[in-house]
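Researcher: Quick test of sequence recovery. Tokens follow.
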């Protein structure tokens, strides 16, 4: 078996087709909302949440049967229907057109997989079992959520701002690298999180 290539993809401005808007389709659509993608949903029915996203202009929703031309211009396709026949049809049509496709819960009909993700601001930690055991991926995610608490969001944002200042400085390259590595050290993290905790505690006491 060949190995998967892990990467984070920029979807802003790209068209993503979602076929199926039931409860499972809803979760897949929700995961795409903040990416800036142009989300087009085709389904015979849709949950209330999906309809509300359409009314708000967050997605384009067409309540009808899938047509092969729906894949025209799509960068990714996500299929979440209960019909094996339809799932296979969308997948093989996507293959023919060179569109990456994910048929939910059918690993053999997937070009990519949804990982289980821990999000702390700009910090994202993704876990995947290549569709073999989503339950295991979820358990590992839960463990990571405890290890990487909410305080990481502010710390990563601060690291980004400091990194830009260091890179724009006149320091020698070796010194810049030394500073960047020291800022990302365990000691620096613990100090930052301790400072944040102190500020929160102080605020609660006011």
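Model:
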């Amino acid at each position: 078996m060949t190995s998967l290539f892990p990467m984070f993809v920029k979807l802003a401005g790209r068209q993503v087709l979602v076929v199926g808007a039931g409860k499972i389709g809803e979760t897949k659509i929700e995961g795409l909302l903040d990416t800036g993608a142009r989300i087009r949903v085709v389904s015979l029915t849709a949950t209330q949440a999906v309809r509300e996203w359409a009314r708000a202009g967050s997605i384009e929703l067409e309540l009808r049967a899938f047509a092969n031309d729906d894949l025209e211009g799509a960068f990714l396709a996500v299929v979440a229907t209960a019909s094996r026949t339809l799932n296979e049809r969308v997948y093989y049509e996507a293959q023919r057109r060179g569109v990456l496709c994910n048929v939910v819960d059918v690993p053999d009909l997937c070009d990519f997989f949804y990982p289980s993700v821990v999000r702390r601001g700009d910090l994202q930690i993704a876990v995947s079992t290549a569709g073999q055991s989503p339950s295991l991926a979820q358990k590992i995610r839960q463990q990571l959520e405890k290890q990487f608490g909410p305080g990481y969001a502010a710390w990563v944002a601060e690291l980004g701002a400091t990194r830009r200042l260091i890179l724009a400085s006149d320091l020698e390259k070796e010194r810049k690298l030394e500073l960047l590595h020291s800022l990302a050290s365990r000691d620096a993290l613990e100090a930052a999180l301790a400072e944040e905790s102190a500020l929160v505690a102080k605020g609660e006491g006011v």
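The chain has a mean pLDDT of 90.
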